[in-house]
Amino acid sequence: MDDHSLLYGAILYLAAAVIAVPIFKRLGLGAVLGYLVAGVAIGPWGLGLISDVETILHASEFGVVLLLFLIGLELNPHRLWEMRRPILGLGGVQVAATTLALTAAGLLLGLDWRSALVAGMGLALSSTAIALQVLTERNLLPTAGGNAGFSVLLFQDIAVIPMLAVLPLLAPTAGAGLEGAQGPDWLEALARLGVIGAIVVGGHYLLRPILRLIAATGLREIFTAFALLLVTGTAALMQTVDLSMALGAFLAGVLLADSEYRHALESDIEPFKGLLLGLFFIAVGMSVDFGLLLDSPFLVLALVTGLVAIKAAVLYGLATYYPLPGPQRPLFALVLSQGGEFAFVLFSEALGLRCLSPEVCGLLIGVVALSMMTTPLLLWLYEGVIEPRLRAPAEARPMDLVEDQDHPVIVAGFGRVGQIVARLLNANGIETTILDHDPEHIETIRRFGFKVYYGDAARLDLLHAAGADRARLLILAIDDRAQALKIVELVREHFPNLDILARAWDVFHLLQLRDKGVTQVEREAFEGALRLGETALARLGLGAWAAKQAANRFRAHDQALLADLLAHFREDIEVRAAISASARQRLREEMEADAAFYAEPRDQDWH
Amino acid sequence: MSDKPRILVLFAHLDLRRSRINGAMLTAIGDLPGVEIHDLLELYPDFYIDVAAERRTLLAADLLVLQHPLYWYSAPAIIKHWQDLVLERGFAYGPGGTALHGKAMLQAVSTGGPASSYRSGGAHGGPLDDYLRPFEQMARFTGMRPLPPLIIQGGHTVTDAQIAAHAARYRALLAGFRPLAPDGAAANPPEET
């Protein structure tokens, strides 16, 4: 592809996505279907603007890899271990049962047993990209149904490996190659184990120090570059030993799920994932062979319907047996009812080994691509028609939420102020999510058992990742005054329910924060200074009690002055300038007000 | 039990510098051996009372003295707060709550109004003893032996000489205090002077 066609292609994909996706989103059909239709529109069977479908499809498969990396980041090893039962149980049974059912269907349709088995295996796999995207788009991933769906997808990603391994044995000429294959197979298995071992060990011991070094440079784009390098590198490593790239990325994600850089990695990778995944869907849309559909429309439609029906039936049975809560079963069944991107890989491979005839292979790929388009439609139907009826009797949704990283309090800035606040909260059993952008700092703090995440709290995506939409309080304790104000604006706009407690640098900063609607603002130095003054009074003979009362009175008096100042501050900008400029004059006025306040006679008869 | 009786004085006053009576009383007992004075508002201006430390001192004491002016027919709030926090079930009463058994309790109270106003029909509606009853009952309930309260009244009108005499009486009372012998009889009952 030369430079011109690259630019041309980019413009085409972006334009198609920008036009189609918002329309489909508006119609309530979801972004995935929008991408697919955009692909159809610009593909060989639509406007015919793109012909090089194969290349695009391959390149954009990397979106799936990034997706799996992000999913891995959400699952630390502990939670993954907790999910072993649904992964092995649900996933294993789904793959086995669906393969059997589809192979039987293939035999009934007159395929030879080889083709039937290959088709059965390939079609049993669902589309991680479609299913996960559809689930995240509707925020269904944390439900029991979404969780079970994810477990099955994860198992399928692992199951591809033995499936690909079995293919050569199914080849018509397999007999000759069998003995020769034994030796290299051992080596290959060793190499695979070695690569996985390297990823696990390297991910565990090396990644954090490297990430720390890179974060210490303070260059955000380098951090992003490293994040991408990490995922591509892991994926490439897996590919050299014929393992699933997505699985490798997933593994890398899991290994970093506990690290303080999780949120930063998430928000850096997210846009790339979104775009590449979109491109992937577009490519799928483009690759649908409508020629086939036009040649034998009934056969193709019947096959797609049959495929989706058989897969959904097996899944529904599983959901009932497992068991999932009633209203979640159709969701689980529909989300995984399509053929997946791994089918493309498997069928191309099988074609090369002559396990499949070119006609059957083309037909199968067409069916898979079309079945991918059915999922968003079926889900749209499910949400519009089936779910409302099921949900009427029991509002059982919120109970089965998978526990997430949502802590009630986010502490932004873990310096002198944030530390004290977080320590007090932690000492009282309140879990906090801590954000800080100083890697050195983070390392020290982690030794004391705090969970700290690296990142810039003024980034909306990072706030999202930190759970700002679910948290109750944000302790805004960062050093940077302007940044603090920016965060307040962000939070006010995007998380109106998140209550802010803010640290102010000085009076002017306090007024700025109050003016932006933060009701609880503390000047970082005020309480400490008051305390020193109080102790001075006590030492000078006033006594601890009287000194305490004096300090309390002074605080109240000062707050009244601030309230006055705030009223002026809001009124007009000139006053603002005055307040910020003439600190000395303000001090004089304040001292005069102090004197007037204390001049009030106070007396009581004591005995 | 050591030979010298140990005395814990819980003291509270909202403005000791302006006080005529309580200041003089404190000065009078300040140098007595075995007397520990806890000026509660000075120790705990935040009302964050060190319960463990208070209990330790209380356990070692033979006599608990509550010295305070009468505020609204009771003690200053921090004395009540001290009671609420320190005298808990399991320590001062209830199952296993025998820490205070055998100790004595003395209340040293000053009132602003003269004695004549503390009677039925007077400005304060009843005898002072009525208002001190909760403290006496606190002592009984926790197994302490309440001693007759030491009272000075008419805080706004008493002369310096009267105050000096009262302070001396206070000092003599504490100096002459003897705890009960183990057999339960008063080994040397405090002398009223």
Largest interface, C-beta within 8 A: A-B, 10 and 21 residues
End-to-end C-alpha gap of chain B: 27 Å
Largest sheet of chain B: 6 strands, parallel
Radius of gyration of chain B: 16 Å
Strand order of the largest sheet of chain A: 3-2-1-4-5-6
Task: List SSEs of chain B in N-to-C order.
Answer: EHEHHEHEHEEH
Mean pLDDT rating of chain A: 80
Which CATH C-level class of the largest domain in chain A is it?
Mainly Alpha
Structural class of chain B: alpha/beta
Q: Which range does the strand content of chain A fall in? A: under 5%
* CATH hierarchy: architecture of the largest domain in chain A: Up-down Bundle
Structural class estimated from helices and strands of chain A? mainly alpha
Point out poorly predicted stretches of chain A. Answer: 174-183, 392-405
Fourth-level CATH superfamily of chain B: Flavodoxin domain
Tell me what the structure shows.
The complex is a heterodimer of chains A (607) and B (193). Chain A is mostly helical. Chain A folds into three domains: 3-171 and 189-390, Na+/H+ antiporter like fold, CATH 1.20.1530; 405-524, NAD(P)-binding Rossmann-like Domain (Rossmann fold, 3-Layer(aba) Sandwich), CATH 3.40.50; 525-599. Chain A contains 27 helices and six strands. In chain A, helix 19 links the parallel strand 1 (409-412) and strand 2. In chain A, helix 1 (3-26) packs across helix 2 (31-42). The termini of chain A are far apart. Mean pLDDT of chain A is 80; it is low at 174-183 and 392-405. By secondary structure, chain B is α/β, with parallel strands linked by helices. Chain B has one domain: Flavodoxin domain (Rossmann fold, 3-Layer(aba) Sandwich). Chain B contains six helices and six strands, in the order βαβααβαβαββα. Chain B has helices at residues 21-29, 40-43, 51-60, 77-86, 128-141, 160-175, and strands at 7-11, 35-39, 63-69, 104-110, 145-146, 150-152. The two termini of chain B are 27 Å apart. The model of chain B is unreliable at 185-193 (pLDDT under 50). The chains are: A mainly alpha (607), B alpha/beta (193). The A-B interface holds A 543-548, 604-607 and B 13-22, 41-43, 45-46, 69, 110-112, 155-156.
